[in-house]
Design brief:
Elements (H helix, E strand, L loop, with lengths): L12 E7 L39 E7 L5 E8 L8 H13 L7 E7 L11 H4 L3 E5 L4 H10 L9 H21 L5 E8 L11 H13 L2 E7 L5 H10 L6 E2 L5 H16 L3 E3 L2 H4 L8 E6 L7 E3 L10 E3 L7 E4 L1 H8 L5 E6 L7
Parallel strand pairs: 3-4, 3-6, 6-7, 7-8
Antiparallel strand pairs: 1-2, 4-5, 9-13, 10-11, 10-14, 12-13
Helix pairs in contact: 1-3, 1-7, 4-5, 5-6
Length: about 350
């Protein structure tokens, strides 16, 4: 929903403000004394008892490029015959979403269901590999749009169970690989349909919802966009089981525009409120208790320090691992509030004592 979560937008930058508070008239000298956080702090943060802390005026501003956790989004698109009446308008909305500068930085894969070969109709393995593999927007939009243009709504069934299952299997494999390689990553599946399961494959809502639940347990959320004609009970059950509360339903009066808005909403909700550690923290130049998250509203005004809130039982942020962190994670309530602010800015300030709630 909000492009400011994307690295390409550059609205989020890591402003590494290094507090170099030294006694008046003295030269700044670096030190390598051990810090309580277990890191080596190469900045002399002890200003002396006779010196005033000068705040931002005493800090040297160094800026790192924002390095948000990358998102991989697997889109599974219903191409059954019932989609014919709204296909062109819906695909126009999808193409606009893929070309939208706000979508830059997302890795997208695309698949269609049902498959043309009968023997693959009910096999999740047959849907695991996408018709168009993952690639980074905006450059990858060309291949995705070409695949869309080559398809038409000619399917005689709606095998949601294998299509969703295959996409989830692929997304879970990506999430597992990232975890094993100890690199930040986020994966989600987007199911787009105008009906409910039909045909020879599994059509029990509970069974299909259980797939989404299993995906969520492995770190993969399932989003559902329901086009006109969708069965709400089915769509909502899948979305809820997949950790996204309810389906996003498109109004029939403006399929193209509403579908594009729905996809933008998915984009905003799917993008994680997570940031990899700034380089100077990752390489132990700055201690983990010398990090502060600063929020500036899109309307301007004073910067607001977002306190650290270990455990996230209130507003704030936390490390993914308090002892050996690899990323900074905004707490759910803070994440929601900042996402609602179109052009908000988050800076990570380094060198000053962490403010803890």
């Amino acid at each position: 929903m909000r492009g400011f979560w994307l690295a390409q937008s550059r609205l989020f930058t890591f402003g590494a403000l290094l507090c170099a508070c030294a006694p008046s008239g003295s030269d700044f000298e670096s030190s390598t004394k051990p810090d309580a956080g277990g890191f080596i702090d190469d900045f002399d943060l002890d200003a002396g008892s006779d010196s005033a802390l000068l705040g931002d005026a005493a800090c040297a501003a160094l800026t790192e490029e924002a390095n948000e956790t990358p998102l991989s989004l697997y889109v599974v698109l219903d191409k059954s015959m019932s989609m014919e009446a709204r296909w062109d308008r819906a695909m126009a909305g999808l193409k606009a979403f893929l070309k939208d500068p706000q979508s830059a930085g997302i890795r997208v894969a695309l698949n269609f269901f049902p498959k043309p070969l009968p023997q693959e109709e009910c096999s999740s393995a047959g849907y695991m590999e996408p018709a168009v593999d993952f690639g980074l927007l905006p450059g990858h939009a060309t291949a995705l749009i070409a695949a869309i243009d080559a398809e038409k709504p000619d399917g005689r069934s709606t095998p949601v169970h294998p299509a969703l299952g295959g996409a989830l299997r692929k997304a879970m494999a990506l999430a597992k690989a990232a975890e094993e390689e100890k690199r930040p990553a986020s994966a989600a599946v987007l199911l787009v349909t105008d009906g409910e399961p039909e045909g020879n494959c599994e059509d029990d809502y509970a069974v299909i919802a259980d797939q989404a639940k299993q995906g969520l347990e492995r770190g993969v959320r399932t989003f559902v966009v329901g086009l006109p004609g969708v069965t709400l009970d089915f769509a909502n059950r899948i979305a809820e089981a997949g950790g996204t509360e309810k389906a996003i339903v498109v109004d029939s009066n403006d399929v193209e525009g509403e579908f594009r808005k729905a996809l933008a909403k998915v984009r905003g909700e799917a993008l994680p409120c997570e940031f990899t550690l700034p380089d100077k923290v990752a390489d132990r130049s700055v201690a983990i208790d010398r990090v502060n998250v600063v929020y500036t509203k899109s309307s301007g005004g004073e910067k607001e320090i977002v306190p650290q809130a270990p455990g996230c039982d209130t507003d704030g942020w936390e490390y993914d691992d308090p002892q050996n962190p690899t990323k900074i994670v905004l707490c759910p309530s803070t994440c929601a509030a900042i996402k609602a602010d179109l052009n908000a800015r988050i800076d990570i300030e380094l060198g000053c004592q962490t403010i803890i709630r």
